[in-house]
Amino acid sequence: MQIPSLLLWLDYFGVVVFATSGAIVAAHKRLDPVGLMLAATVTGIGGGTLRDLLLDRPVFWLAAWQYVALTAGTALFLYALGWFAPAFRAGSPRIVRSTG
Q1: CA angle (10, 5, 67) in 5-degree steps
Q2: Nearest 5 degrees, angle CA 51-CA 1-CA 11?
Q3: pLDDT digits over 1-46, tens only?
Q4: Mean pLDDT throughout 59-83?
Q5: What is the DSSP string of 32-83?
């Protein structure tokens, strides 16, 4: 695997991790899917956007749509996971029982 390709995949992974954290916080606030996508997008690509604006560079996700698609897809996946698999919801009795 080439180094630039590896860095790109690590960048995508970081965006998904931060989008997941934003979506989880939004899910705890009981937001709808649009709210989850907004929170995941702001959390996932907000830091890079702020960096680009402060450095007076073009905002990276305006040229590469994959970042917005990753954050929105992550939020929708987590929403569906919570909808179709109630055991993954926070405070579910099955999770509490299985962890002690």
Answers
A1: 55
A2: 20
A3: 566 888 999 999 999 999 999 998 888 888 888 999 999 999 999 9
A4: 90
A5: -HHHHHHHHHHHHHHHHHHHHHHTT---HHHH-THHHHHHHHHHHHHHHHHH
